[in-house]
Amino acid sequence: MINILIVEDEPNMITGLKDNFEVEGYTVDTARNGEEGLKKIFEKNYDMVILDVMLPKLSGFEVCKSVRKKGNSTPIILLTARGEEIDRVLGLELGADDYITKPFSIRELIARIKAILRRRDNGTLQSGKGETVSIGKLEINFATYNAYSFFGEVQMSHKEFEILNLLWNNRNKTVSRDDLLKIIWGFEESPTTRTIDNFIVKLRQKIEENPNKPKTILTVHGIGYKLIS
Length: 229
Ligand code: CA
What we know:
41% helix
């Protein structure tokens, strides 16, 4: 029996999804806001979570982030309304397994669900586990938020991990300060580009052999940063 949780606040959307999923033979549970969704994900062992981004109380992004941060690897498909590139990038960075942009066809969504379940069953789904990667002097596991040097564990803040993860996922490409601001800080806070530069200084102190002559996180003058790997 496949057990699916729908986290969505629009009643029509819930009804539409629920009816179609039940026709597929799935068992369906629902949550009407992010908080309730988060609670249910930890209460039950769902096979799949369909998670809307625009939700009351906690956004889908925040739910996804909390789930992964606590080491829960339940597969998640995000429903994004805006269809912006930033949503897709952010969703996948936060540990979602896939995303689908509204309006979507229910057939397409069910095909995505089946694809993820297949990957889970043959062991190729990596939700929330992740591997350790080498960046400069450190070994980093982005899924568990751990960083190690030759001498042991290195303390890094959540924001430092997020910035490093974004640079890593775009390694050998320039990431602009504007994109870093939009993706890491979102719209709720508005730090200055100076804030980013300060974070980069701290990251270099942890990563670089010589923080004054960085070889891993390079400055691209007037634009942003580039992680070399
Ligand atoms: Ca919504």
